[in-house]
Amino acid sequence: MSILNKLKRKLGEMALNNLPRNTSLKPTGYFDAFSGYFAKFPESKVKVFAIYPSLTTKLVVDKAFYDAFSSFTKYDPAVESGDNVTLSCTTDYKLAVIPYGRIIANNVSMVAVITEENQLLSEVSLQYDVDREAKGKDSLVFRRKYFSTPLFINGTVFNMLGGGGTINNIGHWMLDALARLNFLKEAGLFDEVDYFLVPNFAHEFQKESLQLFGIAPERIVVADGETHFQAERLISTSHPRGARSYLVPHWLISFYQNTIGEKAKALNTNYPSKIYVSRRDSKLRGIENEDQLISFLESEGYTTLEMSKYSLLEKVAIFQQAESIIGMSGAGLIGLLFANRGMQFLELFPRGFVHSLYYNIANFLDMDYQYLICDSASKSEDIKKAQLEDIRVDISDIKKITDGWKVPKY
């Protein structure tokens, strides 16, 4: 972002906080459930599709692993039983078609979906909160005094905004933004959409993934910072991972394997079966002794790859063809969504950034999952610091795991 644009954005933020304008555009109420909305507005033309009613996602982890999780990744209810902990999240997945609906968003922590009656619909909106599940009353839209005039879009617009992580991170893009297309297909409305509202359209993985679903660039509307749209017909959905959940629902994995995964199988490629995914192409979370690690892994038959060098379909094909993958936790491992059942997977963690995301995917695909928590300078207590943690890997610990993989299971 240029200095001029940064200044414009800062001035815009100041205006939003201090200078009242168009305050009639502020929602006059909110509904945490559609039932309450329809009770008050029975003549409403909003149409709601139940996609996966009251779907519960569960994940069982051993207690030692759970105890190592970073506090800021423990969003889901946990029930201990012996040496295991069961995590769960129940979501009533819905899609809403809203005539003359509006979206007010900062494209980071807030996406407020508002009806023609000026009511916020929580079930298809987003309000990010670090510590808890946010409700309609928590939306930052209610703290605003300044409202820009909405840009009106003729036609049907599908809302894919999923929070700040989706702007630049391929993992969040796949999990929190692009996955919403599944709801659209399940409702049978994909072909009725004229425009797709996305958090960003600057990265190749965003352009390529949308193209794989037949969405041309001229049908893309980008939310650039502060956003206020009104559409002749707005379609919005529940969050793919539910309200403040770290769990990955099974439908999401199946959706990608049956769509992008099938397209990748048509590529005429031949990638190594044993892969080490390096983060040398990232400025965040490096490995201090990576040269030593790579030297050892090469002696074990592993090939080092940096995911940023490959197209999205190539990334998918790499994970599809792999029999064994080792890598440090991060967005470069999102290709696990497309991996084959039963493969070997070792995830390396900094002490301050341990979570269940990739174990969740590995568990669903019956992988031989192993994890290793590595030394770092300090144990971070928040997500921002955790994302910066470099680690040092104990090669002897890696060898124990790879040696174990060489022993036949049966």
From TrEMBL:
Q: Which Pfam families match?
A: Glyco_transf_61 (PF04577)
Keyword terms of this UniProt record: Plasmid
What is the official name of this protein in its record?
A: Glycosyltransferase 61 catalytic domain-containing protein
Q: Which organism is it from?
A: Persicobacter psychrovividus
Q: Which residues form the Glycosyltransferase 61 catalytic domain?
A: 171-343
